[in-house]
């Protein structure tokens, strides 16, 4: 069988931001929805051109999805339907753009809309973890709601037998009767399920962030799994002009065409993300992508674009591909798997995996004894364009020293650039590796000596942390430190109090991008124990309380380098089942305990970990106790202390972001915890496709923040994403479109306050604005 050669047919410019959804309507018209808050109708003109004839307006936020609903009783001419991040659905007159229908009922962003099989029926799904079935012939009637997913519902369709299928970020697909009764839950995908398509009268297709496509029967049997993409798959569309044909699009600028499960053609685009793909009746392929452009591809030579347009397009693709071929340590970064592969256990002790973490390549080894992947280190390689530089964790340095800290232990990497203050680099190294503060002088002198610095900067008792600008208390220097607050007010960001002079904060030490995880270390162990002892008597109306010795052992789990027995960890897991009204001290012990490498591995292992994370996410519900919400966030922040916790929190990132957006009343401690969690997510995902969604979450939360320290951490998260995201242009536009945040950035950047935290905000605002 001859494989048709698809070539570029048309380029449709008109949107100013990402095109998140494309759909087809009658007479080969194209519909598009964009983050620029508009949707558009493109009408064919001549053989291959399209003209924007109508722009649909009315949404107050991104337009994330679009579809065409055929004529029905109430709308005899049909309806253009859009869903938005403003939580609403709008229906427009196709010809003049008049808003004819407004549907409200979802509690979060609407990410999918599709027509039902019966006239006048509309399906929608949302980040609020539900799908809904609307009767637009009677829009005042309440929709049927399908509740049961544990995370955002990315797609919903009606199958040919009348079954409703929903796809979710909780990695499952659910099949429902129209009366909202659940028929069955389908598992098999290992990451978010992003889209669904009806394949035949008896089957349907799903695609996922796990880079696979699955064919299912209408009763839920998995009939086949297809592979071809090497990254997230966002969209799938049946090709009516090809028997058993369909198209998929995803991350990395890839569109793939399939026949009978075989990938017959790949189309590369000069973009990072192809968010949506749809097929016209004549077999042409339409794409919407992260550069805000709609493209049409065809196999009909009569509809090929002119030679110059095709040549320019192919040159743009070649440039993108050349940059993706960059090698670090002899490996093509673009071809290596991401950290999601570490969610699967190893097959044998000592098995190694090379994993892409942003621009860096890391090597991990499987430990059977610990039942976890352990990071061995970075795969080092030099960038030819930067002679004399060494790559470490995706950044170039003048030096990457190997420092022997402990006999018998592998050396620790210490990266350093000559432009850095050696004392700042030494402090960051100590903080990153949990070393005693007394090492500061020794490490700084090591850098000065080995980097052969021309001058010896003076040591300072007022050393300022490069992220927080805060002085650190050095043990042994005396108990009375001028300006040091009492322990109860110490900053959990640094584990230190805040005494700082204005001169101690320098714009030479940028706050962004931040490159390491933060955590909450400070605790009043005695107060936690006393509260546990008080609540212990209330469990089960006094039946089977823990002994004082057992409680003491549980509290000791919170010591960073504690040893523990399995029985005590089992007790902690059992205590996490306490009633929510008395749960908060157990959560406090848990957030301290997960800092320990061994405990982290057991709390977040493949058996207990996924259920534990899902349980934590239920505690983030807005109607939960504020103390539980705050401490749950701290548990999730500290989960990043080691790989197992980091991986499971990242796997649940969609639900985490959703939960943070849904929170309403936030006290100061909760604000700090929420922004700390977003900061850790930003460090992990800054160079990943998720950075756009994460930035939107950060911006929405910053609009609710009243605490200065929380705002600062959120600002560092935003700056980190902006500095390292592959979608920088979209992020720049997004920040500017949030007028309240953008105005505050400009206002804060011009101030020179004496308050330490406000001074940090001012400097960080300047650094973020320089990236816009």
TrEMBL record:
<dbReference type="InterPro" id="IPR036322">
    <property type="entry name" value="WD40_repeat_dom_sf"/>
</dbReference>
<dbReference type="InterPro" id="IPR038122">
    <property type="entry name" value="PFU_sf"/>
</dbReference>
<feature type="repeat" description="WD">
    <location>
        <begin position="226"/>
        <end position="258"/>
    </location>
</feature>
<dbReference type="InterPro" id="IPR019775">
    <property type="entry name" value="WD40_repeat_CS"/>
</dbReference>
<feature type="repeat" description="WD">
    <location>
        <begin position="186"/>
        <end position="217"/>
    </location>
</feature>
<keyword id="KW-0963">Cytoplasm</keyword>
<protein>
    <submittedName>
        <fullName>Phospholipase A-2-activating protein</fullName>
    </submittedName>
</protein>
<keyword id="KW-0853">WD repeat</keyword>
<dbReference type="InterPro" id="IPR001680">
    <property type="entry name" value="WD40_rpt"/>
</dbReference>
<dbReference type="GO" id="GO:0010992">
    <property type="term" value="P:ubiquitin recycling"/>
</dbReference>
<dbReference type="InterPro" id="IPR015155">
    <property type="entry name" value="PFU"/>
</dbReference>
<dbReference type="InterPro" id="IPR015943">
    <property type="entry name" value="WD40/YVTN_repeat-like_dom_sf"/>
</dbReference>
<keyword id="KW-0539">Nucleus</keyword>
<dbReference type="InterPro" id="IPR013535">
    <property type="entry name" value="PUL_dom"/>
</dbReference>
<dbReference type="Pfam" id="PF00400">
    <property type="entry name" value="WD40"/>
</dbReference>
<dbReference type="GO" id="GO:0043130">
    <property type="term" value="F:ubiquitin binding"/>
</dbReference>
<feature type="domain" description="PUL">
    <location>
        <begin position="510"/>
        <end position="768"/>
    </location>
</feature>
<feature type="domain" description="PFU">
    <location>
        <begin position="365"/>
        <end position="461"/>
    </location>
</feature>
<dbReference type="Pfam" id="PF09070">
    <property type="entry name" value="PFU"/>
</dbReference>
<dbReference type="GO" id="GO:0005737">
    <property type="term" value="C:cytoplasm"/>
</dbReference>
<keyword id="KW-0677">Repeat</keyword>
<dbReference type="InterPro" id="IPR011989">
    <property type="entry name" value="ARM-like"/>
</dbReference>
<dbReference type="GO" id="GO:0043161">
    <property type="term" value="P:proteasome-mediated ubiquitin-dependent protein catabolic process"/>
</dbReference>
<feature type="repeat" description="WD">
    <location>
        <begin position="12"/>
        <end position="42"/>
    </location>
</feature>
<dbReference type="InterPro" id="IPR016024">
    <property type="entry name" value="ARM-type_fold"/>
</dbReference>
<dbReference type="GO" id="GO:0005634">
    <property type="term" value="C:nucleus"/>
</dbReference>
<dbReference type="Pfam" id="PF08324">
    <property type="entry name" value="PUL"/>
</dbReference>
<comment type="similarity">
    <text>Belongs to the WD repeat PLAP family.</text>
</comment>
<feature type="repeat" description="WD">
    <location>
        <begin position="146"/>
        <end position="177"/>
    </location>
</feature>
<feature type="repeat" description="WD">
    <location>
        <begin position="103"/>
        <end position="144"/>
    </location>
</feature>
